[in-house]
Amino acid sequence: MPATKAIPRIVKSKSCGNSPKNLLVQALVIAIETANVTVFSRCISDDLLWAIPGRKSFDGKAAALAFLKSRKLSAPAQVRVRRVISHGRAGAGDGTLVLQSGLPHSFCHVFEFTSVRGNRVSAISSYYSDLGEVA
Q1: Could you give the 3-state DSSP secondary structure of residue 51?
Q2: Looking at the domain 9-134, which fold is it?
Q3: Rounded CA gap, 127 and 135, in Å?
Q4: What is the pLDDT of residues 74-94, one digit of tens each?
Q5: What is the 8-class DSSP label of residue 118?
Q6: pLDDT at position 73
Q7: Which DSSP category does 21 fall into?
């Protein structure tokens, strides 16, 4: 019998309120951390540039989706979105990711929207740090 994949616990930010752009940022943060290809694909442009400084970068929607699909193998136990902000053509969300092993990591994703309306994202910079024993 195949192993069932644990569904991560999602704790959303209380700062999204009634801002559509903040809700999009939060949806993208959760999609990245849970490897939700469907939501991620709907929110990004075809010419997306995604950088994880010091680690990897992806040029184009297809490359970003391939990377996200590869992350599905290691679902987190919990994703806690701490803050979500947006202004003009920029947005960001930060929080904590807890792996199935219990090891926490902090993250921050910075987004550039394709326009001020904020329907899609054209660039992402993702930052991660180990929290280890400090958490």
Answers
A1: strand
A2: Nuclear Transport Factor 2; Chain: A, (3.10.450)
A3: 17
A4: 778 899 999 999 999 999 999
A5: -
A6: 64
A7: H
Of 10, 23, 6, which is closest to residue 97 (Cα–Cα)? Answer: 10
**DSSP secondary structure code for residue 59 in this structure:** E
Interacting residues of 33 by C-beta distance below 8 A, sequence separation 6+: 8, 76, 79, 95, 97, 107
Q: E-strand spans in 43-120? A: 44-52, 56-59, 78-87, 90-98, 104-113
Give the residue extent of every domain in the chain: 9-134
pLDDT (0 to 100) of residue 1: 40
The pair of structure tokens assigned to 103 is 């090891």
Distance, CA of 101 to CA of 7 (rounded, Å):
14
Joined tokens for residue 7: 């569904």
The order of strands in the sheet holding 90-98 is 9-11, 78-87, 90-98, 104-113, 121-130, 44-52, 56-59
